[in-house]
Amino acid sequence: LFDSLYVASVEGVLYSRYPQSVNPAKDVYGGDREYFRQTLAQDHALISAPLVSRVTSAPVLVFSQPVWRGSRIVAVLGGTLRLSNRELLEGMVETSETDDASLVVVSDATGRILAHPDPRQVMRWLTDEPRLTGAFADWSSMGSPVEPMGLRLTQEGAVVSAAGVPGPDWVVWRARPESE
Questions:
Q1: From residue 106, how far is each of 50, 122, 123, 159, 161 by CA, in Å?
Q2: Could you read off the pLDDT of 2-46 as tens digits, one per residue?
Q3: Stretch (H or E) spanning 172
């Protein structure tokens, strides 16, 4: 599942990473990353917001988990998932041969695209996706809810729904032409 794994001290200094062959000469410090600080502060696993890897320069999500010894956190275990590989979300956004008119996109709670049928759209904003700009504006005017029950949103010429994924606060967007 993961493109790389690491173990870091609570200060953010890497103890170990796999694969080591990925930019081995590059010193990597993670203590200044928001997800890292949140992992330590919240004492539980989390999924980062999309960010650019300092090792590969690729857009990634980081899954992090505090490592406990007794009653204190002594390290952070992390795994990165390259969004361009789409391993985690691949089946959701692919269009089938019989349903190529529909669009499925996954974004974070701010509207940054995490998965799209066109991988070049990853890390761009929903405002850049013409088939969802009206729906995104409608959703934003509602306060950008990450609603698991789903919402019907306004988009000219299309039927658009969005449903939230609690936990990572992702939103799955689905659009179909209104004529269908």
A1: 12, 9, 11, 16, 12
A2: 888 999 999 998 888 887 655 554 567 788 899 999 999 988 899
A3: strand 170-177
Neighbours of 95 (CB within 10 A): 12
Q: What is the pTM of this model?
A: 0.78
Q: DSSP for 106-163, please give it.
A: EEETTSBEEE-SSGGGTTSBGGG-TTTHHHHHHHHHTT----TT-EEEEETTEEEEEE
Q: Is 113 exposed, middle or buried (0-12, 13-18, 19+ CB in 10 A)?
A: buried
Whether residue 87 contacts residue 1, with contact meaning beta carbons closer than 8 Å, is answered with yes
Please, what sign has the CA dihedral across residues 168, 109, 117, 34?
negative
Q: Which contiguous run of DSSP H or E holds residue 93?
A: helix 90-93
